[in-house]
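Try this one yourself first.
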């Protein structure tokens, strides 16, 4: 029994949800999103109760797993077009900085060359100052994926903590050679 999958997804004010064929389309003030669930999942919109119902076709293990996943994806789409999602990154290190150049972000993080990363369509990336990056968008997966890709360009190292990290992320620092004496 899928507890998450059986819960109906409430439709927020100002958000339109429609199902055409197999495609679920969600439109709101922050943008539009579309998603096509697998064949094992059926999606119905109840306009009278302002909710989306997700059902599965059988009780196989894969169908049960996809049931809750599909419900969560639709819920994230509705929240995304209404409120949007945001990830904040901070850059720690002497001389480490970020800047926007057109549709790309360039990072100077202690390497010989500047690292340049193209910003995907649908995301808004800003740099309030040289050591902070704010990534915003209505697609939760796209926001998280781009933030992870930018972080992976220079992960925080465990001795001094220098690198790109999520804001508020705690890095456990290792003691250096001096700790052994």
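Now uncover the answer:
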């Amino acid at each position: 029994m899928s507890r998450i999958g059986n819960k109906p997804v409430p439709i927020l004010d100002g958000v339109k949800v429609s199902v055409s064929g197999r495609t679920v389309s969600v439109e709101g003030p922050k943008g539009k999103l579309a998603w096509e669930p697998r064949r094992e999942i059926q999606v119905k919109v109840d306009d009278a109760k302002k909710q989306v119902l997700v059902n599965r076709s059988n009780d196989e293990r894969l169908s049960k797993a996809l049931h809750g996943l599909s419900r969560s994806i639709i819920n994230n789409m509705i929240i995304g077009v209404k409120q949007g999602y945001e990830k904040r990154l901070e850059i720690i290190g002497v001389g480490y900085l970020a800047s926007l150049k057109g549709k790309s972000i360039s990072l100077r993080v202690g390497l010989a060359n500047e690292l340049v990363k193209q910003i995907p369509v649908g995301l808004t990336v800003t740099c309030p100052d040289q050591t902070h990056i704010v990534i915003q968008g209505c697609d939760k997966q796209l926001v998280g994926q781009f933030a992870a890709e930018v972080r992976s360009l220079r992960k925080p190292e465990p001795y001094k903590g220098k690198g790109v990290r999520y804001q508020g992320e705690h890095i456990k620092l290792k003691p250096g050679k001096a700790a052994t004496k």
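Discussion: The two ends are 57 Å apart (CA to CA). The domain at 85-166 is CATH 3.90.930.12 (Outer Surface Protein A; domain 3).
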